[in-house]
Design brief:
The structure is a homodimer. Chain A is an alpha/beta fold. Chain A has ten helices and eleven strands. Chains A and B meet through strand 8, strand 9 and helix 6 of A and strand 8, strand 9 and helix 6 of B.
């Protein structure tokens, strides 16, 4: 998905094409921006990419997608071809770090120093800001792959993560719901026990984000969270699981403003890329 | 524990007295620094405190210990009395954030932008640095209270955390070892199955720190980690649990330098306080 603009109030039409081979996909991206660059001056390009990616400025593979399971995309240089073809600086980060940045600039986390954005969909991914800086460190967060208190006696489902089985993503992503109950999430009625269990796993993950990052807000997006009834359930279960240990008004008094949906909706992806371009 | 100095190479004798009532304890701290202040000029005081504490500069309770279970210490102003009595700036943070800062300045995390310090002892606490800044956010991390994949079928022990039962601290702290096996950790022989299980829980916690914070190094200190044989075991189990998903040389090639003991040993506490004073 590509677009040209400077923010949510200045965002041109999004253009979308399928992620096929790296060569073809990058060629189409370059064509799009070359064409648009004839009409308006491009100052920078931002790329909010699926991962894992190499973000070390000194690394010979900086700007590459690295060990992804996506066929054909291992060790693919994204930044190099775009910079060479377009002649502008390229901002680069994970899709979720980009979305977190965009929610901080224009969305659900404005004016906060420290927050987390998590998407719960075909997988679970998370990006975060600590003291106004995106979390990178050795790589970048892979929040979906944390382990959580899976009680096999209550829930004998083995999980769907091809790496870890019952990590957070393995138990709580869209495919986990579908495999556990034999039906897609959107086909499950609102009173199905799936939702209570889903909220429980959401809360376990949220509890670990609170314990490790102490964010000022947690934004939960992605396809699964379009089931809005999950928000009150997940909030309630988070408060229950924390057992009063974390005494902060964000949790004890304002949980409705603590665990929230994103505000940028379908534009979170391209706005994330634009936020990364603005940071160049 | 109190000391005067500017770092590990300039650290006067530590003075230690028991934590009794807030009044008596703060009075003895003030006396110690007043007495020392007659001989050398104090520029600032740092306090690396047990928590939870209030670190919000604008809060009416900034500088207080807040909801601690320690009798008599709830809602105790630490920073106010010290600043009034000593007339110097007071740096204030959690003991583990202080220790993390000190390990970054002088110890096992020098020159790193992003790392975590965890102490595994009578409880589990952790502090962290992301992009050179201590993690604060809504409060401060409470890493011991994350949940981990406790498999009740393999380990029916309910945990010792008074709040959460089988959180990381509940399963993996010194008191957890003692209660699970009916013996203090130091009385268990090196070939006791306790160590394998302990390393497993250490690795589950480490895996969650890697997933959420992506640190460049994880320092494990505290009384339990004096059992040095835990380090190779915990490293091996961390690599096994990650299942090759996180492909970074820190983990795939240099795990011995990734999960390490602290370097400041018994001085980590006072050096943490000095690091906080230096930041004033």
């Amino acid at each position: 998905m590509c677009a040209v603009g400077t923010g949510p109030d200045d965002l041109g039409a999004r253009v979308e094409f399928p992620t096929t081979t790296p060569e073809e996909t990058i060629r189409r991206v370059v064509e799009f921006f070359r064409e648009r660059g004839k009409r308006e001056k491009l100052s920078a390009v931002g790329v909010a990419s699926f991962g894992p990616i190499d973000l070390h400025p000194g690394s010979p593979h900086f700007g590459y997608i690295t060990s992804t399971p996506k066929p054909g995309w291992q060790n693919t240089d994204l930044v190099g071809p775009l910079r060479r073809a377009l002649g502008v600086p390229v901002g680069f980060d994970t899709d979720v770090n980009g979305a977190a940045l965009a929610e901080g600039l224009w969305g659900a986390a404005q004016k906060l120093d420290s927050f987390v954005y998590v998407t719960i969909g075909t997988g679970i991914g998370g990006g975060g800001v600590v003291e106004k800086k995106l979390i990178h460190g050795a790589l970048h967060p892979e929040m979906g792959h944390m382990n959580v208190a899976h009680d096999w006696r209550q829930d004998p489902f083995a999980g769907v993560c091809p790496f870890h089985g019952d990590c957070w993503e393995g138990l709580c992503s869209g495919p986990a719901i579908e495999k556990r109950w034999g039906k897609k999430a959107e086909e499950l009625p609102a009173d199905h026990p799936a939702w209570e269990l889903e909220a429980h796993y959401l809360a376990l993950g949220v509890m670990n984000l609170v314990s490790t990052l102490s964010p000022q807000r947690i934004i939960l997006g992605g396809g699964v969270m379009r089931h809005q009834e999950l928000f009150p359930l997940a909030r309630q279960k988070t408060v229950e699981l924390l057992k009063g240990y974390i005494q902060i008004p964000e949790i004890t008094e304002r949980i409705d403003e603590y665990i929230v949906p994103p505000k940028l909706g379908e534009n979170a992806g391209v706005l994330g890329a634009i936020a990364l371009a603005l940071g160049c």
